[in-house]
Amino acid sequence: MRILGINALFHDPAAALVIDGHTVAAAEEERFSRRKHGKRPLPFSAWELPEKAAAWCLAEAGLRPQDLDAVAYSFDPRLARPADTMGLDDPWDHLRLAYAREAPNFLHTALPGLDPEKVRFVPHHMAHAASSALAAPGAETSSVLVLDGRGEATSHLAGRRVGDRIEPLYGQELPHSLGLVYEDLTEHLGFLRSSDEYKVMALASYGTPRMLGELRKHVHATGDGGFRAAGVPWAELCPPLRPGEAWTQDHADLAASAQACLEETLLDLVRWLHGRTHDSLLTMAGGVALNCVANSRIAREGPFDRVWVQPASGDAGTALGGALHLAASGGDRTEPLAGADLGRRWSDAELEGWLKTAAVPYERPADVAETVAEALADDQIVAWFQGRSEYGPRALGHRSLLAHPGRSGNLERLNDVKGREQFRPVAPMVLADRAPEIFDGPMPSPYMLFVHEVAEEWRDRIPAVVHVDGTARIQTVDPVNEPLVARMLGSFERRTGLPVVVNTSLNTAGRPMVDDPRDALECFGSSPVDLLAIGPFVVRRGTFFAGGQPDATGAAEPLSATDAEGFAAVGSVPSYGTPDGVSARPVHTAPVREPVAGSGAAAAGIAGTGPGLPGAGPGGVTGAAGPEGAPGGGADTPGMPR
Q: CB–CB of 139/285 below 8 Å?
Protein backbone atom coordinates (compact mmCIF):
# COMPACT_ATOMS: atom_id res chain seq x y z
CA MET A 1 0.00 0.00 0.00
CA ARG A 2 1.07 3.59 -0.72
CA ILE A 3 0.12 5.75 2.25
CA LEU A 4 0.80 9.42 2.88
CA GLY A 5 0.76 10.55 6.50
CA ILE A 6 -0.22 14.12 7.42
CA ASN A 7 0.19 16.04 10.67
CA ALA A 8 -1.40 19.47 10.57
CA LEU A 9 -3.79 20.39 13.36
CA PHE A 10 -1.70 21.64 16.30
CA HIS A 11 1.89 22.43 15.32
CA ASP A 12 4.93 21.07 13.49
CA PRO A 13 3.01 20.13 10.33
CA ALA A 14 4.75 17.31 8.52
CA ALA A 15 4.28 14.63 5.89
CA ALA A 16 5.59 11.07 5.61
CA LEU A 17 5.29 8.45 2.90
CA VAL A 18 5.13 4.71 3.64
CA ILE A 19 5.11 2.22 0.75
CA ASP A 20 4.47 -1.47 1.49
CA GLY A 21 5.42 -0.90 5.14
CA HIS A 22 8.72 0.84 4.28
CA THR A 23 9.27 4.47 5.24
CA VAL A 24 10.36 6.18 2.03
CA ALA A 25 10.40 9.86 3.03
CA ALA A 26 9.43 12.18 5.87
CA ALA A 27 9.84 15.92 6.34
CA GLU A 28 8.54 18.83 8.36
CA GLU A 29 6.94 21.78 6.63
CA GLU A 30 9.20 24.23 8.47
CA ARG A 31 12.17 23.01 6.42
CA PHE A 32 10.42 24.22 3.27
CA SER A 33 8.51 27.30 4.50
CA ARG A 34 11.37 28.45 6.82
CA ARG A 35 8.81 29.21 9.56
CA LYS A 36 9.86 27.71 12.88
CA HIS A 37 7.53 24.82 13.79
CA GLY A 38 5.63 25.51 10.55
CA LYS A 39 3.01 27.58 12.38
CA ARG A 40 1.86 28.53 15.86
CA PRO A 41 -0.47 26.01 17.56
CA LEU A 42 -3.59 28.19 17.41
CA PRO A 43 -7.09 27.24 16.25
CA PHE A 44 -6.87 30.00 13.65
CA SER A 45 -3.96 28.20 11.96
CA ALA A 46 -5.41 24.70 12.14
CA TRP A 47 -6.38 24.74 8.47
CA GLU A 48 -2.74 24.99 7.37
CA LEU A 49 -1.40 21.83 5.77
CA PRO A 50 2.15 20.62 5.06
CA GLU A 51 1.59 21.17 1.34
CA LYS A 52 5.25 21.49 0.37
CA ALA A 53 6.38 18.57 2.51
CA ALA A 54 3.61 16.37 1.12
CA ALA A 55 4.37 17.33 -2.47
CA TRP A 56 8.04 16.59 -1.93
CA CYS A 57 7.32 13.16 -0.39
CA LEU A 58 5.27 12.20 -3.44
CA ALA A 59 7.88 13.56 -5.85
CA GLU A 60 10.63 11.65 -4.05
CA ALA A 61 8.79 8.41 -4.82
CA GLY A 62 7.62 9.46 -8.28
CA LEU A 63 3.97 9.33 -7.27
CA ARG A 64 0.95 11.49 -8.00
CA PRO A 65 -1.79 12.15 -5.43
CA GLN A 66 -4.15 9.84 -7.34
CA ASP A 67 -1.63 7.00 -6.95
CA LEU A 68 -2.10 6.90 -3.19
CA ASP A 69 -4.12 4.14 -1.56
CA ALA A 70 -4.80 6.19 1.57
CA VAL A 71 -3.92 9.36 3.45
CA ALA A 72 -3.64 9.27 7.25
CA TYR A 73 -4.62 12.46 9.10
CA SER A 74 -3.35 12.27 12.69
CA PHE A 75 -6.39 13.58 14.52
CA ASP A 76 -9.92 12.17 14.68
CA PRO A 77 -12.50 14.93 15.30
CA ARG A 78 -15.14 12.29 16.04
CA LEU A 79 -13.36 11.55 19.34
CA ALA A 80 -13.14 15.18 20.47
CA ARG A 81 -15.41 16.97 22.91
CA PRO A 82 -16.05 20.69 23.44
CA ALA A 83 -13.11 22.26 25.25
CA ASP A 84 -15.16 23.63 28.14
CA THR A 85 -16.54 20.16 28.93
CA MET A 86 -12.95 18.92 29.29
CA GLY A 87 -11.93 21.72 31.64
CA LEU A 88 -9.83 23.53 29.01
CA ASP A 89 -9.81 27.29 28.58
CA ASP A 90 -9.81 27.37 24.77
CA PRO A 91 -12.88 29.26 23.49
CA TRP A 92 -11.86 28.86 19.83
CA ASP A 93 -11.24 25.13 19.96
CA HIS A 94 -14.45 24.54 18.03
CA LEU A 95 -12.79 26.24 15.06
CA ARG A 96 -9.93 23.75 15.22
CA LEU A 97 -12.42 20.90 15.17
CA ALA A 98 -14.28 22.39 12.23
CA TYR A 99 -11.03 22.54 10.26
CA ALA A 100 -10.22 18.94 11.19
CA ARG A 101 -13.58 17.73 9.91
CA GLU A 102 -12.91 19.46 6.59
CA ALA A 103 -9.38 18.06 6.26
CA PRO A 104 -10.26 15.63 3.43
CA ASN A 105 -11.51 18.51 1.27
CA PHE A 106 -8.56 20.72 2.21
CA LEU A 107 -6.19 17.92 1.20
CA HIS A 108 -8.05 17.42 -2.06
CA THR A 109 -7.42 21.10 -2.84
CA ALA A 110 -3.79 21.01 -1.73
CA LEU A 111 -3.01 17.80 -3.64
CA PRO A 112 -4.97 17.97 -6.91
CA GLY A 113 -6.07 14.54 -8.00
CA LEU A 114 -6.43 13.14 -4.49
CA ASP A 115 -9.76 11.47 -3.79
CA PRO A 116 -10.98 12.93 -0.46
CA GLU A 117 -12.59 9.56 0.29
CA LYS A 118 -9.09 8.13 0.73
CA VAL A 119 -8.40 10.33 3.75
CA ARG A 120 -8.62 8.42 7.02
CA PHE A 121 -8.70 9.97 10.49
CA VAL A 122 -6.22 8.30 12.85
CA PRO A 123 -6.58 9.08 16.60
CA HIS A 124 -3.80 11.43 17.62
CA HIS A 125 -2.26 9.29 20.34
CA MET A 126 -2.60 6.12 18.27
CA ALA A 127 -0.55 7.88 15.59
CA HIS A 128 2.07 8.78 18.21
CA ALA A 129 2.07 5.20 19.50
CA ALA A 130 2.42 3.70 16.03
CA SER A 131 5.30 6.05 15.21
CA SER A 132 7.25 4.39 18.00
CA ALA A 133 5.94 0.87 18.49
CA LEU A 134 5.71 0.07 14.76
CA ALA A 135 9.06 1.71 13.94
CA ALA A 136 11.32 0.46 16.74
CA PRO A 137 13.71 -2.40 15.99
CA GLY A 138 12.77 -5.70 17.61
CA ALA A 139 9.46 -4.34 18.88
CA GLU A 140 6.99 -7.03 17.76
CA THR A 141 6.04 -7.50 21.41
CA SER A 142 6.65 -4.34 23.41
CA SER A 143 5.08 -1.70 25.59
CA VAL A 144 4.42 1.83 24.38
CA LEU A 145 3.97 5.07 26.32
CA VAL A 146 2.77 8.34 24.77
CA LEU A 147 2.62 11.65 26.65
CA ASP A 148 2.09 15.14 25.23
CA GLY A 149 -0.02 18.23 25.71
CA ARG A 150 -3.30 17.00 24.29
CA GLY A 151 -5.03 15.01 21.63
CA GLU A 152 -8.74 14.73 20.96
CA ALA A 153 -9.82 14.21 24.59
CA THR A 154 -6.77 12.74 26.31
CA SER A 155 -3.13 13.62 26.95
CA HIS A 156 -1.63 10.16 27.23
CA LEU A 157 -1.77 6.59 25.98
CA ALA A 158 -0.29 3.50 27.59
CA GLY A 159 -0.47 0.37 25.50
CA ARG A 160 1.14 -2.72 24.10
CA ARG A 161 2.16 -3.82 20.65
CA VAL A 162 1.40 -7.41 19.77
CA GLY A 163 2.29 -8.25 16.19
CA ASP A 164 0.92 -5.48 14.01
CA ARG A 165 -1.69 -4.30 16.53
CA ILE A 166 -1.41 -1.75 19.32
CA GLU A 167 -3.72 -2.46 22.25
CA PRO A 168 -4.51 0.63 24.38
CA LEU A 169 -4.44 -0.03 28.12
CA TYR A 170 -5.07 3.44 29.53
CA GLY A 171 -5.58 7.01 28.40
CA GLN A 172 -5.60 9.98 30.77
CA GLU A 173 -8.51 12.33 30.12
CA LEU A 174 -8.06 16.07 29.89
CA PRO A 175 -7.61 18.56 31.52
CA HIS A 176 -4.90 16.54 33.27
CA SER A 177 -1.81 16.81 31.12
CA LEU A 178 1.89 16.66 31.92
CA GLY A 179 2.58 18.44 28.66
CA LEU A 180 0.22 21.33 29.35
CA VAL A 181 1.62 21.76 32.85
CA TYR A 182 5.12 22.03 31.41
CA GLU A 183 3.84 24.51 28.82
CA ASP A 184 2.34 26.66 31.59
CA LEU A 185 5.69 26.67 33.37
CA THR A 186 7.48 27.60 30.14
CA GLU A 187 5.28 30.66 29.79
CA HIS A 188 5.63 31.52 33.48
CA LEU A 189 9.43 31.57 33.08
CA GLY A 190 9.24 34.07 30.25
CA PHE A 191 9.76 31.63 27.38
CA LEU A 192 7.45 30.96 24.44
CA ARG A 193 4.99 28.19 25.28
CA SER A 194 4.55 25.40 22.77
CA SER A 195 8.08 26.15 21.60
CA ASP A 196 10.67 26.70 24.34
CA GLU A 197 9.92 23.86 26.75
CA TYR A 198 13.40 22.44 26.17
CA LYS A 199 14.87 25.65 27.65
CA VAL A 200 13.13 24.89 30.94
CA MET A 201 14.87 21.53 31.09
CA ALA A 202 18.25 23.14 30.41
CA LEU A 203 17.59 25.79 33.09
CA ALA A 204 16.63 23.07 35.59
CA SER A 205 20.25 21.91 35.74
CA TYR A 206 21.13 25.18 37.45
CA GLY A 207 18.61 24.76 40.27
CA THR A 208 17.67 22.53 43.20
CA PRO A 209 14.21 20.92 43.49
CA ARG A 210 13.32 22.61 46.79
CA MET A 211 9.69 23.18 45.66
CA LEU A 212 9.10 19.53 44.77
CA GLY A 213 6.90 18.85 47.78
CA GLU A 214 4.44 21.57 46.81
CA LEU A 215 4.36 20.48 43.18
CA ARG A 216 3.60 16.88 44.14
CA LYS A 217 0.24 18.08 45.49
CA HIS A 218 -0.78 19.02 41.97
CA VAL A 219 1.20 16.61 39.76
CA HIS A 220 1.38 12.90 40.60
CA ALA A 221 0.46 9.45 39.35
CA THR A 222 -2.78 7.94 40.64
CA GLY A 223 -1.72 4.27 40.71
CA ASP A 224 -4.23 3.09 38.11
CA GLY A 225 -2.23 4.01 35.00
CA GLY A 226 -3.25 7.66 35.05
CA PHE A 227 -2.17 10.86 36.79
CA ARG A 228 -3.23 14.26 38.03
CA ALA A 229 -1.60 17.30 36.47
CA ALA A 230 -3.53 20.57 36.53
CA GLY A 231 -3.97 23.79 38.49
CA VAL A 232 -0.39 24.40 39.60
CA PRO A 233 -0.20 27.83 41.36
CA TRP A 234 3.03 28.91 39.67
CA ALA A 235 2.84 32.54 40.86
CA GLU A 236 2.68 31.42 44.49
CA LEU A 237 5.91 29.47 44.04
CA CYS A 238 7.92 32.05 42.13
CA PRO A 239 7.25 35.43 40.47
CA PRO A 240 6.70 35.23 36.70
CA LEU A 241 9.33 36.40 34.27
CA ARG A 242 8.58 38.69 31.38
CA PRO A 243 10.13 37.65 28.06
CA GLY A 244 13.74 38.73 27.97
CA GLU A 245 14.11 39.31 31.73
CA ALA A 246 17.06 37.68 33.48
CA TRP A 247 16.26 34.54 35.46
CA THR A 248 17.12 34.22 39.15
CA GLN A 249 17.98 31.27 41.34
CA ASP A 250 14.31 30.99 42.32
CA HIS A 251 13.38 30.48 38.69
CA ALA A 252 16.05 27.83 38.23
CA ASP A 253 14.84 26.09 41.41
CA LEU A 254 11.27 26.10 40.11
CA ALA A 255 12.41 24.57 36.82
CA ALA A 256 14.39 21.92 38.71
CA SER A 257 11.39 21.12 40.90
CA ALA A 258 9.06 20.74 37.92
CA GLN A 259 11.57 18.57 36.09
CA ALA A 260 11.97 16.30 39.11
CA CYS A 261 8.19 16.06 39.54
CA LEU A 262 7.79 15.13 35.88
CA GLU A 263 10.43 12.42 36.19
CA GLU A 264 8.82 10.94 39.30
CA THR A 265 5.41 10.81 37.65
CA LEU A 266 6.80 9.21 34.51
CA LEU A 267 8.58 6.54 36.54
CA ASP A 268 5.31 5.67 38.30
CA LEU A 269 3.51 5.42 34.94
CA VAL A 270 6.26 3.24 33.50
CA ARG A 271 6.19 0.90 36.48
CA TRP A 272 2.42 0.54 36.21
CA LEU A 273 2.70 -0.26 32.51
CA HIS A 274 5.41 -2.87 33.04
CA GLY A 275 3.30 -4.46 35.75
CA ARG A 276 0.58 -5.03 33.15
CA THR A 277 2.74 -6.18 30.23
CA HIS A 278 6.02 -7.58 31.69
CA ASP A 279 7.71 -6.68 28.41
CA SER A 280 11.44 -6.09 28.15
CA LEU A 281 11.17 -3.20 25.65
CA LEU A 282 9.48 0.17 26.18
CA THR A 283 8.97 2.45 23.17
CA MET A 284 8.06 6.11 23.66
CA ALA A 285 6.69 9.02 21.64
CA GLY A 286 4.86 12.31 22.16
CA GLY A 287 6.43 15.65 22.98
CA VAL A 288 7.28 14.67 26.55
CA ALA A 289 9.47 11.90 25.11
CA LEU A 290 11.81 14.62 23.83
CA ASN A 291 12.75 15.26 27.46
CA CYS A 292 16.03 13.36 27.39
CA VAL A 293 16.74 13.87 31.11
CA ALA A 294 13.49 12.08 31.98
CA ASN A 295 14.19 9.40 29.35
CA SER A 296 17.53 8.65 30.95
CA ARG A 297 16.01 8.28 34.37
CA ILE A 298 13.38 5.90 32.97
CA ALA A 299 16.14 3.83 31.36
CA ARG A 300 18.24 3.88 34.53
CA GLU A 301 15.59 3.35 37.22
CA GLY A 302 12.63 1.89 35.35
CA PRO A 303 11.74 -1.80 35.07
CA PHE A 304 12.27 -2.20 31.31
CA ASP A 305 15.49 -3.68 29.95
CA ARG A 306 15.49 -1.38 26.91
CA VAL A 307 13.95 2.01 26.10
CA TRP A 308 13.62 3.21 22.50
CA VAL A 309 12.44 6.75 21.74
CA GLN A 310 11.22 7.76 18.29
CA PRO A 311 13.55 10.49 16.93
CA ALA A 312 10.66 12.68 15.73
CA SER A 313 8.62 12.16 18.89
CA GLY A 314 6.80 15.49 18.67
CA ASP A 315 3.71 16.07 16.59
CA ALA A 316 5.72 15.88 13.37
CA GLY A 317 6.14 12.18 14.08
CA THR A 318 2.40 11.55 13.96
CA ALA A 319 2.59 11.90 10.17
CA LEU A 320 4.80 8.82 10.14
CA GLY A 321 2.76 7.07 12.83
CA GLY A 322 -0.54 7.63 11.05
CA ALA A 323 0.86 6.15 7.85
CA LEU A 324 2.36 3.16 9.66
CA HIS A 325 -0.92 2.55 11.50
CA LEU A 326 -2.90 2.40 8.26
CA ALA A 327 -0.23 0.24 6.65
CA ALA A 328 -0.34 -2.28 9.48
CA SER A 329 -4.14 -2.20 9.57
CA GLY A 330 -4.17 -2.91 5.83
CA GLY A 331 -1.98 -5.98 6.14
CA ASP A 332 1.46 -4.56 5.32
CA ARG A 333 4.37 -5.64 7.47
CA THR A 334 5.94 -2.45 8.79
CA GLU A 335 9.72 -2.15 8.76
CA PRO A 336 11.79 -0.70 11.62
CA LEU A 337 13.10 2.80 11.12
CA ALA A 338 16.66 2.62 9.78
CA GLY A 339 17.50 6.21 10.70
CA ALA A 340 16.21 9.76 10.92
CA ASP A 341 17.75 10.81 7.57
CA LEU A 342 14.48 10.79 5.65
CA GLY A 343 14.45 14.28 4.14
CA ARG A 344 15.77 16.00 1.04
CA ARG A 345 19.12 15.26 -0.63
CA TRP A 346 21.16 16.51 -3.58
CA SER A 347 23.70 14.85 -5.86
CA ASP A 348 27.27 16.13 -6.02
CA ALA A 349 26.56 17.64 -9.45
CA GLU A 350 23.49 19.45 -8.12
CA LEU A 351 25.42 20.84 -5.15
CA GLU A 352 28.16 22.10 -7.44
CA GLY A 353 25.49 23.74 -9.57
CA TRP A 354 24.24 25.63 -6.52
CA LEU A 355 27.76 26.78 -5.67
CA LYS A 356 28.40 27.97 -9.21
CA THR A 357 25.06 29.70 -9.41
CA ALA A 358 25.82 31.56 -6.19
CA ALA A 359 29.29 32.49 -7.48
CA VAL A 360 30.79 31.04 -4.30
CA PRO A 361 34.52 30.22 -4.27
CA TYR A 362 34.82 26.53 -3.41
CA GLU A 363 37.19 23.58 -3.41
CA ARG A 364 36.81 19.83 -3.84
CA PRO A 365 39.37 18.23 -1.52
CA ALA A 366 40.47 14.62 -1.87
CA ASP A 367 38.49 13.72 1.29
CA VAL A 368 36.07 16.19 2.86
CA ALA A 369 36.17 14.24 6.14
CA GLU A 370 39.93 14.77 6.44
CA THR A 371 39.63 18.45 5.52
CA VAL A 372 36.93 19.03 8.13
CA ALA A 373 38.89 17.15 10.80
CA GLU A 374 41.90 19.35 10.10
CA ALA A 375 39.77 22.50 10.39
CA LEU A 376 38.23 21.31 13.66
CA ALA A 377 41.65 20.48 15.06
CA ASP A 378 42.62 24.08 14.24
CA ASP A 379 39.62 25.20 16.34
CA GLN A 380 37.50 26.30 13.41
CA ILE A 381 33.70 26.09 13.43
CA VAL A 382 32.37 23.97 10.57
CA ALA A 383 28.94 23.93 8.95
CA TRP A 384 28.33 20.32 7.90
CA PHE A 385 25.77 19.67 5.15
CA GLN A 386 25.73 16.02 4.04
CA GLY A 387 23.22 13.52 2.68
CA ARG A 388 19.53 13.54 3.52
CA SER A 389 18.21 15.99 6.08
CA GLU A 390 16.98 14.75 9.44
CA TYR A 391 13.34 14.15 10.36
CA GLY A 392 12.74 15.58 13.82
CA PRO A 393 14.38 18.27 15.97
CA ARG A 394 17.87 16.79 16.30
CA ALA A 395 20.90 17.46 14.11
CA LEU A 396 22.37 13.99 13.68
CA GLY A 397 25.34 14.50 11.41
CA HIS A 398 23.55 15.71 8.29
CA ARG A 399 22.76 19.37 9.05
CA SER A 400 25.18 20.21 11.88
CA LEU A 401 27.52 22.82 13.29
CA LEU A 402 30.73 21.15 14.46
CA ALA A 403 33.47 22.37 16.79
CA HIS A 404 36.42 21.26 18.94
CA PRO A 405 35.18 19.85 22.30
CA GLY A 406 38.47 20.45 24.09
CA ARG A 407 38.13 24.25 24.05
CA SER A 408 35.90 25.31 26.93
CA GLY A 409 35.16 28.64 25.26
CA ASN A 410 33.52 26.91 22.32
CA LEU A 411 30.23 26.56 24.22
CA GLU A 412 29.93 30.33 24.56
CA ARG A 413 31.25 30.76 21.04
CA LEU A 414 28.62 28.48 19.51
CA ASN A 415 25.80 30.00 21.54
CA ASP A 416 26.92 33.40 20.26
CA VAL A 417 27.01 32.10 16.67
CA LYS A 418 23.49 30.74 17.06
CA GLY A 419 22.18 33.67 19.12
CA ARG A 420 21.12 31.46 22.05
CA GLU A 421 21.03 31.81 25.81
CA GLN A 422 24.36 30.97 27.43
CA PHE A 423 22.82 28.46 29.87
CA ARG A 424 22.11 26.09 26.99
CA PRO A 425 24.50 23.18 26.36
CA VAL A 426 25.76 21.72 23.10
CA ALA A 427 26.07 18.01 22.41
CA PRO A 428 28.89 15.59 21.57
CA MET A 429 28.97 13.03 18.78
CA VAL A 430 31.21 10.02 19.39
CA LEU A 431 32.00 6.73 17.69
CA ALA A 432 29.76 4.02 19.14
CA ASP A 433 32.66 1.76 20.14
CA ARG A 434 34.41 4.58 22.01
CA ALA A 435 31.36 5.93 23.84
CA PRO A 436 31.31 3.54 26.85
CA GLU A 437 34.75 4.61 28.06
CA ILE A 438 33.70 8.28 28.14
CA PHE A 439 29.96 8.31 28.85
CA ASP A 440 27.71 6.33 31.20
CA GLY A 441 24.11 5.87 30.05
CA PRO A 442 21.89 4.06 27.54
CA MET A 443 23.86 2.72 24.58
CA PRO A 444 23.67 3.04 21.67
CA SER A 445 22.20 6.52 21.54
CA PRO A 446 22.00 7.48 17.84
CA TYR A 447 19.21 10.07 18.18
CA MET A 448 20.38 12.30 21.08
CA LEU A 449 17.41 11.38 23.25
CA PHE A 450 19.21 10.43 26.47
CA VAL A 451 21.71 12.20 28.72
CA HIS A 452 24.86 10.47 29.94
CA GLU A 453 27.22 11.04 32.84
CA VAL A 454 30.63 12.13 31.60
CA ALA A 455 33.48 10.13 33.14
CA GLU A 456 35.41 12.23 35.65
CA GLU A 457 38.71 11.80 33.83
CA TRP A 458 37.20 13.11 30.59
CA ARG A 459 35.43 16.22 31.85
CA ASP A 460 38.49 18.44 31.60
CA ARG A 461 39.40 16.97 28.22
CA ILE A 462 36.07 17.77 26.52
CA PRO A 463 34.73 20.72 28.56
CA ALA A 464 32.70 22.27 25.72
CA VAL A 465 30.18 19.40 25.77
CA VAL A 466 29.92 18.87 29.54
CA HIS A 467 26.81 20.48 31.02
CA VAL A 468 26.86 22.20 34.41
CA ASP A 469 25.56 18.99 36.05
CA GLY A 470 28.32 16.82 34.58
CA THR A 471 26.18 15.25 31.86
CA ALA A 472 26.09 15.31 28.08
CA ARG A 473 23.39 14.47 25.55
CA ILE A 474 25.37 12.26 23.22
CA GLN A 475 24.97 10.94 19.70
CA THR A 476 26.69 7.62 19.10
CA VAL A 477 27.88 7.10 15.52
CA ASP A 478 27.86 3.67 13.87
CA PRO A 479 30.38 3.53 10.99
CA VAL A 480 28.07 1.19 9.07
CA ASN A 481 25.20 3.69 9.10
CA GLU A 482 27.24 6.92 9.04
CA PRO A 483 30.58 6.15 7.33
CA LEU A 484 31.43 9.76 6.44
CA VAL A 485 30.81 11.08 9.96
CA ALA A 486 32.72 8.13 11.42
CA ARG A 487 35.68 8.84 9.13
CA MET A 488 35.69 12.49 10.18
CA LEU A 489 35.62 11.50 13.88
CA GLY A 490 38.47 9.05 13.39
CA SER A 491 40.56 11.64 11.58
CA PHE A 492 39.88 14.22 14.32
CA GLU A 493 40.99 11.75 17.00
CA ARG A 494 44.24 11.04 15.15
CA ARG A 495 45.00 14.76 15.23
CA THR A 496 43.86 15.58 18.76
CA GLY A 497 43.53 12.36 20.76
CA LEU A 498 39.82 13.15 21.27
CA PRO A 499 37.18 10.79 19.80
CA VAL A 500 34.47 13.40 20.33
CA VAL A 501 33.27 16.38 18.26
CA VAL A 502 30.78 19.08 19.26
CA ASN A 503 27.56 18.73 17.27
CA THR A 504 24.70 21.22 17.34
CA SER A 505 22.05 22.02 14.77
CA LEU A 506 22.91 24.02 11.66
CA ASN A 507 20.72 27.06 12.21
CA THR A 508 20.60 30.36 14.06
CA ALA A 509 18.10 31.60 16.62
CA GLY A 510 14.52 31.79 15.39
CA ARG A 511 15.13 29.80 12.22
CA PRO A 512 14.45 26.16 11.39
CA MET A 513 17.34 23.82 10.85
CA VAL A 514 19.07 24.28 7.49
CA ASP A 515 17.60 21.97 4.89
CA ASP A 516 18.55 22.88 1.31
CA PRO A 517 21.78 24.31 -0.17
CA ARG A 518 20.41 27.85 -0.21
CA ASP A 519 19.73 27.63 3.51
CA ALA A 520 23.29 26.43 4.07
CA LEU A 521 24.78 29.30 2.06
CA GLU A 522 22.63 31.89 3.83
CA CYS A 523 23.51 30.54 7.28
CA PHE A 524 27.22 30.39 6.40
CA GLY A 525 27.17 33.90 4.99
CA SER A 526 25.38 35.44 7.96
CA SER A 527 27.23 33.84 10.87
CA PRO A 528 30.89 33.60 11.88
CA VAL A 529 31.39 30.03 10.68
CA ASP A 530 34.85 29.24 9.31
CA LEU A 531 34.16 26.41 6.89
CA LEU A 532 31.14 25.06 5.02
CA ALA A 533 31.39 21.38 4.07
CA ILE A 534 28.60 20.79 1.56
CA GLY A 535 28.74 17.36 0.00
CA PRO A 536 32.31 16.77 -1.22
CA PHE A 537 32.94 20.52 -1.49
CA VAL A 538 34.22 23.07 1.02
CA VAL A 539 33.80 26.84 1.16
CA ARG A 540 36.26 28.75 3.35
CA ARG A 541 35.33 31.98 5.02
CA GLY A 542 38.60 33.61 4.00
CA THR A 543 38.06 33.03 0.30
CA PHE A 544 34.31 33.60 0.57
CA PHE A 545 34.98 37.18 1.65
CA ALA A 546 38.32 37.63 -0.14
CA GLY A 547 38.93 40.84 -2.08
CA GLY A 548 38.97 41.20 -5.86
CA GLN A 549 36.80 40.04 -8.71
CA PRO A 550 36.50 36.28 -9.10
CA ASP A 551 37.00 34.91 -12.57
CA ALA A 552 33.56 35.07 -14.13
CA THR A 553 34.25 32.77 -17.05
CA GLY A 554 32.76 29.62 -15.61
CA ALA A 555 29.25 28.55 -16.52
CA ALA A 556 26.88 27.25 -13.93
CA GLU A 557 25.58 23.76 -14.42
CA PRO A 558 21.79 23.58 -14.64
CA LEU A 559 20.01 22.78 -11.42
CA SER A 560 17.63 19.86 -11.23
CA ALA A 561 13.88 20.38 -11.31
CA THR A 562 13.84 19.53 -7.62
CA ASP A 563 16.11 22.44 -6.77
CA ALA A 564 15.77 25.25 -9.24
CA GLU A 565 13.22 27.96 -9.73
CA GLY A 566 15.20 29.30 -12.70
CA PHE A 567 18.12 31.71 -12.74
CA ALA A 568 19.37 34.37 -15.17
CA ALA A 569 22.97 35.64 -15.29
CA VAL A 570 23.37 39.25 -14.21
CA GLY A 571 27.07 39.97 -14.75
CA SER A 572 30.10 40.41 -12.58
CA VAL A 573 30.53 39.73 -8.89
CA PRO A 574 31.04 42.62 -6.46
CA SER A 575 34.16 42.57 -4.32
CA TYR A 576 34.15 41.68 -0.66
CA GLY A 577 36.14 43.13 2.20
CA THR A 578 39.42 41.30 2.84
CA PRO A 579 40.07 40.16 6.44
CA ASP A 580 43.61 40.76 7.69
CA GLY A 581 45.94 37.82 7.38
CA VAL A 582 43.74 35.82 4.99
CA SER A 583 45.54 34.19 2.11
CA ALA A 584 43.64 33.11 -0.98
CA ARG A 585 43.42 29.47 -2.08
CA PRO A 586 42.74 28.14 -5.57
CA VAL A 587 38.98 28.11 -5.96
CA HIS A 588 36.23 27.58 -8.48
CA THR A 589 34.04 30.56 -9.36
CA ALA A 590 31.07 31.36 -11.56
CA PRO A 591 28.97 34.40 -12.46
CA VAL A 592 26.40 35.66 -9.99
CA ARG A 593 22.89 34.68 -11.00
CA GLU A 594 19.62 35.95 -9.72
CA PRO A 595 16.28 34.13 -9.49
CA VAL A 596 13.52 34.53 -11.99
CA ALA A 597 10.00 33.21 -11.87
CA GLY A 598 9.60 29.46 -11.98
CA SER A 599 8.53 26.41 -10.05
CA GLY A 600 10.10 23.74 -7.88
CA ALA A 601 11.67 23.85 -4.43
CA ALA A 602 12.41 27.31 -3.08
CA ALA A 603 15.81 28.23 -4.44
CA ALA A 604 15.36 31.95 -5.03
CA GLY A 605 17.32 34.48 -3.06
CA ILE A 606 20.84 33.10 -3.39
CA ALA A 607 22.17 36.21 -5.10
CA GLY A 608 21.37 39.70 -3.94
CA THR A 609 19.17 38.75 -1.00
CA GLY A 610 20.74 36.19 1.33
CA PRO A 611 22.70 37.59 4.27
CA GLY A 612 26.43 37.69 3.63
CA LEU A 613 26.08 36.46 0.05
CA PRO A 614 27.37 38.37 -2.97
CA GLY A 615 25.22 41.44 -3.45
CA ALA A 616 23.62 41.26 -0.03
CA GLY A 617 23.19 44.33 2.11
CA PRO A 618 24.42 44.18 5.69
CA GLY A 619 22.19 42.04 7.87
CA GLY A 620 19.84 41.22 5.03
CA VAL A 621 17.75 38.18 5.84
CA THR A 622 15.31 36.41 3.58
CA GLY A 623 12.27 34.43 4.59
CA ALA A 624 10.00 34.53 7.62
CA ALA A 625 11.18 33.18 10.93
CA GLY A 626 9.13 32.04 13.86
CA PRO A 627 10.23 31.76 17.49
CA GLU A 628 13.16 29.55 18.28
CA GLY A 629 12.58 26.23 19.95
CA ALA A 630 12.34 22.51 19.64
CA PRO A 631 9.02 20.73 19.26
CA GLY A 632 6.78 21.23 22.25
CA GLY A 633 3.40 22.67 22.89
CA GLY A 634 -0.18 22.44 21.62
CA ALA A 635 0.19 18.71 21.57
CA ASP A 636 3.82 18.27 22.55
CA THR A 637 6.29 19.46 25.12
CA PRO A 638 9.73 19.44 26.61
CA GLY A 639 12.80 18.66 24.54
CA MET A 640 16.49 19.32 24.99
CA PRO A 641 18.20 22.21 23.25
CA ARG A 642 18.68 21.72 19.57
A: no
